[in-house]
Design brief:
Elements (H helix, E strand, L loop, with lengths): L3 H15 L6 E7 L4 E9 L2 E9 L4 E8 L33 E10 L2 E10 L14 E5 L13 H4 L5 E6 L1 E2 L4 H4 L6 H15 L1
Antiparallel strand pairs: 1-2, 1-9, 2-3, 3-6, 4-5, 4-7, 5-6, 7-8
Length: about 200
């Protein structure tokens, strides 16, 4: 009979060889008569990397948030900011914030064009579990988000970011394989759980 530790290592090795936890990518397309942009949400070891470009607004900063609902029949139908913890609104790097608080996007002049280039990593939102933003809405606002610091009556709920100019559902991006996998937990966590069970059992 194999020693317990030998059997344990062999079984964990077999499990590890079969575990796949592929990177998921989601996408939102902001499209109106004047605004156009595509934003990607990519899983990384540090969080969700949010990238893309948006055109169609003058130079300036504009509020940029994930809202709780994916109903884009009108942008008002997307509901409030995604805020499962019922906290005050804040900036993306603040200790207190909504899960959906992305702060502002900055439109700058690039030659004859005005473009907002989006590229940051957010460690709060996710494409899995409780903080998943999949199926919710990305919303671009008309004014600058004051990050909860402006003292306005809506600063702690919306950042006083004004009207909603464009919105889009955050949906699954091709390929579909990472989304269809039965394995949703990180391999390291799954292995830890299985290793513990095997250790107790054997």
């Amino acid at each position: 009979m194999f020693p317990r530790h030998t059997l344990y290592l062999a079984l964990v090795g077999l499990l590890a060889s079969g575990v796949r936890c592929e990177t998921r990518v989601a996408v939102a397309h902001l499209v109106t008569e004047t605004i156009s942009g595509s934003i990607l949400f990519t899983e990384t070891d540090s969080g969700i990397r949010v990238t893309g470009t948006i055109t169609g607004l003058p130079v300036g900063e504009y509020g940029f948030h994930v809202h709780e609902l994916g109903d884009t029949s009108t942008c008002d139908a997307t509901g409030a900011h995604f805020n499962p913890d019922d906290t005050n609104h804040g900036g993306r790097d603040h200790d207190e914030r909504h899960v959906g608080d992305f702060g502002n996007v900055n439109f700058v002049a690039v030659g004859e064009n005005v473009v907002a280039t989006v590229d940051f990593v957010d460690s709060v939102v996710s494409l899995r579990g409780r903080n998943s933003i999949l199926g919710r809405a990305l919303v671009l606002h008309a004014d600058t988000d004051d990050l909860g610091l402006g003292g306005h009556e809506t600063s702690l709920t919306t950042g006083n970011a004004g009207a909603r100019l464009a919105c889009a559902v955050i949906g699954i991006r091709s390929p579909s394989d990472p989304w269809n996998s039965a394995i949703t937990a990180a391999p390291s966590i799954l292995l830890l759980v299985v290793a513990f069970v095997l250790f107790i059992k054997f």
